[in-house]
Write a structure and sequence with these properties.
172 residues, two-stranded antiparallel ribbon, 4 helices, 11 strands, globular
Length: 172
C-alpha cells in the first residue's frame, strides 16, 4: 500500500520560502537523501502556485517520469506534465493511489495544500529538512489551525553542515 509523504525543507525559523516564493536561501550542496527518497516516488501532488514556480526555477520539468497531480480551483483537465484536480477530489484520489501502488505519494507543497492534507488526515509521514538559516519572514510551513495531531519521531539525520532531517509518522 502506498503512503503520502510530506518531504520538504524549511528554515530554522519555520519558513518554506520567502514571501515572494523565492527559495534562494536553501542549500543544495549535497543530496541529503533526496535521490533515494525520489527513487521510491511514483506520484507527485502539488498546488498550482508551486507547479507554476517550478518552471521559473528549472530548465527542464524534474518530475516528467512521475504521475503529477496539481490541485487547483482555477484549472481543470491536464497539460503536458500534470493532471489538474479540484480540492474535493483529493481524498478519493489518495484512496485510489494508496490502494493501487506500493510506492510513495509525495506531497510537495505549498503551505495551503499541506494545511488541507493535514486537516483531511492524509499525511502518513513527515520528512522535514531543517536548514540552519533564519530568513526572518516568509511563507510558514504550517498554517495556523484548530486541529491537533500527534506524531511519532522515527528518525533524525544530522549532516555536517548543520542540516537536520526529522522524520515523523502520524500517531496511530
Amino acid at each position: 500500500m502506498g503512503e503520502v509523504v510530506l518531504y520538504i525543507a524549511q528554515s530554522l525559523d519555520g519558513y518554506i520560502s520567502r514571501e515572494n516564493g523565492d527559495i534562494d536561501w536553501l542549500r543544495d550542496e549535497q543530496d541529503y537523501g533526496f535521490d533515494t527518497f525520489f527513487e521510491n516516488v511514483n506520484t507527485v501532488i502539488m498546488g498550482r502556485k508551486t507547479y507554476e514556480h517550478i518552471f521559473e526555477l528549472a530548465e527542464e520539468f524534474p518530475y516528467k517520469d512521475k504521475d503529477v497531480y496539481v490541485v487547483s480551483r482555477m484549472k481543470e483537465g491536464y497539460d503536458e506534465y500534470a493532471t489538474y484536480i479540484q480540492p474535493e477530489q483529493i481524498s478519493p484520489l489518495i484512496e485510489v493511489l494508496k490502494n493501487d501502488q506500493d510506492k510513495t505519494i509525495w506531497l510537495v507543497g505549498g503551505a495551503q495544500l499541506i494545511h488541507l492534507f493535514i486537516s483531511l488526515g492524509l499525511i502518513d509521514e513527515f520528512q522535514i529538512a531543517i536548514q540552519p538559516t533564519l530568513i526572518g519572514k516568509g511563507i510558514p510551513l504550517f498554517e495556523k489551525n484548530e486541529m491537533e495531531q500527534q506524531l511519532d519521531l522515527t528518525d533524525v539525520n544530522k549532516f555536517d553542515d548543520g542540516m537536520l532531517i526529522l522524520t515523523y509518522r502520524r500517531y496511530q
